[in-house]
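Quick question: what would this complex look like in 3D?
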Amino acid sequence: MAKATSRARRTGPCLRPPDPQTAKSDRAIRGGLWFSLHRWASLPLWILLFFVCITGTLATVSHEITWLINPDVRANQGNAASHVGYDRIAGAVTERWPQAAIHSIQETEPYLATRVSVSLPEGGHATAYVNPYSGEVQGLSRGVTFPGFMRALHGWLLVPWHDGRSWGYYLVGLLALPLLLSLITATVVDKRFWRSFYRPYIRTRLTRRIFWSDLHRVIGTWSIPFVAVIGLTGGFYFVQGVLWDNDITILPPAPMIEREALPVVEGGAPEQAGIDAAVAKARQAIPGLELRWISLPESGYHHTEIYGLGDFPLHSDFSVAAYINPYSGDVGGRRDVDDMSFLMWLQGLADPLHFGDFAGLISKLIWFVFGTLLSLMIFSGMLVWHKRTAPVKAHAPRRTGEAGLVAEAE
Amino acid sequence: MTMRWMRFKYHINAVLLLLPLYFLATTLAMGPNGATGATPLTPKSVGTWQVEPKAAGHWPPRPGQELDMTVRFDAGPVAEIRTAVLTIGDRAPAVEDLLSPSAGLLHGGKVLREAHIPVPADISADAALWLTVERWDGDLHHVSWPLASS
């Protein structure tokens, strides 16, 4: 054994001939209940799982892909000192499309334009891109945007939502089970998996099966935390869907303005305070607010709703909220990190951990790399199985071994 | 045969990828406004407004399902609307029920608005689709479309 180890050191970490220990662990992997479970966990749905992983990986960087293709979504700061404010942004959109109604304003990353969601007078929705440093409207995309499409493709396979539910959403959510089961069974099947952390090796000069099998094991070991995070948050989305279906929401609904508190105006509408005034009130109510989303009132009873991140950086864009009365300017309700229940706090973790957008471009790229690796792992797992069960004719010299395996596997 | 089946069976789930393809095709067929097979209802007036409703989904609505509607406010100043809702029932909703979960709030555009109305599981023969518009002076205006004959 000592000899094998020193030989491994000489040949380097990535190219090592099989030593007796490896041969033994290969044998150990082949049989047994746990191995069957590992195979049954993901193989029957591998193409769907692969598709959801690929689309999810692309969804992680979908805004950045749009940035590369469409100059309208870029926010070039130029010589501008700061953000022009939301009254100017909304005003620029209204000036350009006077009949369009603004629903919401979204901030994503400092290098991306502010997204203003509007309803068009002829029907349909659109997103206007406004440079937050110049206040210039750079473009308008009608209907579904690329990030929105990728999200729908990944999250619910485009299965439409009716009565607040899409069965595609449940189908994708259920994939958390094969993902987590694969992870758990893999650690039991390959008891020495942790060796791949400090001594990863991929044998490239032997058979293709050995190459893919080594790749599968090394990627698998290095992806354990990522797969666990994606599996757990994905499973959470499924549970959240079931809760929605039973009218249980973890975050409380936005408060409405009481009818008695509304201004009464004959033959007109009451004056509204500006969006910037509401944002200033929200910043007073929630010190340290990192603004992500502004919802403008949908009716006379609605507040201007302002959402974002509080002092805790690993939370979703909607974790903290301030509800501002657009007529009086009063704070009609607020939710800061301290006001959250444990469940609310927990559910706030799901989006940033699943999307990988908690630290801007850097975390998105890390999630993109691991998403690619996870997709590759699903593919390599299938390939290993495919090569193991290859028809005996294809590998005549190794007939007995392969045939024996087939018999064992089935 | 068994060998071929054994190697083939794990790839059958590829048919599931036809799902997004099918729904992509249906969405594209619907056009940019998502309105396919919309049923226009008789234009009527409510208060000072002339309204043109359209049922985006199935009309008459099916019990227990959600009805998607659009309403175009063709005349009259829309700024005077405090809130507008669509409901299904025997009579117009009371003012305190305007924001209840059984009402579909008209939202979206200024002139063209949309609503998603929960249809009760048991609809009586007299039930109608009610449009209720509340003005900023507090007055309520109602108009209805019978479910049976329209």
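Answer marked as accepted. The CA atoms of residues 34 and 185 of chain A lie 6 Å apart.
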